[in-house]
């Protein structure tokens, strides 16, 4: 086994995937059978600067270099060889956001991430003008908001991209995006390009606001899974490995967003399949077999890495508030002199939730650390509340917070399933929220009234998913489709555990949601009347935890 792996590494029969998640940068090296051979990672945090969430580009390169260095050390430790080259390479990152550059390649304004919700005016106007939902976090919403706000940098724009697109550009010199990531910048038409009618209308809207530009010239090119997207240059190899050991020349697949690599990592790229990813954010990706009948602000229309249409329900707030409560219980345990690790804390708390009241006994929670567009909140104020006669025990308390972490997702999924009548053959769940066996999985099955599967197929998350896409691009036959490749060559031995929806849980979740929606004015009052100033509370700074860990998309 070790010799075979060592031979694969030294002969270049490998693929390297690198993913920039919200709390972790991760590198995974896979062999010819797509099994992970080595892993390296680096934890990082976003910053809240001038009321915007951002990461510095210095942090991007420092983090990826540490991840690749840790990967190379893992190769030496596990296989006794040096990592001097790879057979193929791919880059993935959190989708959407705004990275704007001038003609000299200089960043014009700090990176604006998917988490920002300051683009409300732009998103509303563009959605109305385009006749499709343009979410707050899409790149075009950020650009139009900058135009509306008369930001000076707009006049110097030469190139817009996402985080994955930026890293790929620096590694290869190519300004290109995978179609899945591109679909989070600007709407894609049925031919697989940016919608030309909407491009023309955007240019007109910009001109009306006093800005002359051609958006088509600012956006990256588009490539589908399996298509060539450049090779690792000498300069790019040095960016990954300043020691100079890593050779240039490896083919690099189209860069993708973390949602797309999460779909690959869960074998959810065929129609009537879907996956839910839960970490710092939580979102569902459902591959469609037909167009939706209406436009819904709760649903984003994006694509798989192969270009098939996908309905995305994206919620800004996932497991961060759960993590904060777990940290409080862990602190209490330490105060009692009990030394417990975070995994034990989460296992204990999540398991207790199984014995809680099915409808959460009158308790309510809102996990809004940041704004939540699904329910029309531009800022977050985490809340827990109960009535005087609420059932107040640990199990019900934890069930309330677990239900709360899935509540906005359920709102969007109800639109997809009940209003649009979309059917699912299977839904896969992954991410830190589902690490405790049989808890969040069971509650998600109740929330969407659909069987939910979990398993080890996504153990290394999106970094593994983009490595698989790199292997696919480097080794596919011309006629082979991505879904067939995954079924025939990657997931043949996958082992899954499936939870069917329990009728009592389904009814309990529905009762919880009636109270949740009815009490949204309480959340509105908190946003309007509780001022957090210019600094977020400490838990809003991203940290890696047992529930939040970015083994998936952000």
From TrEMBL:
GO terms for molecular function: kinase activity. It comes from the Bacteria. One of its GO terms (biological process) is D-xylose metabolic process. Pfam families: FGGY_C, FGGY_N. Keywords: Carbohydrate metabolism, Kinase, Transferase, Xylose metabolism. Residues 15-237 form the Carbohydrate kinase FGGY N-terminal domain. Residues 536-547 have a biased composition (Low complexity). CDD domains: ASKHA_NBD_FGGY_BaXK-like. Residues 275-474 form the Carbohydrate kinase FGGY C-terminal domain. InterPro entries: ATPase_NBD, FGGY_C, FGGY_Carb_Kinase, FGGY_N. Residues 535-554 are annotated as: Disordered. SUPFAM superfamilies: Actin-like ATPase domain. The keyword Transferase applies. Belongs to the FGGY kinase family. This is ATPase. It comes from Modestobacter caceresii.
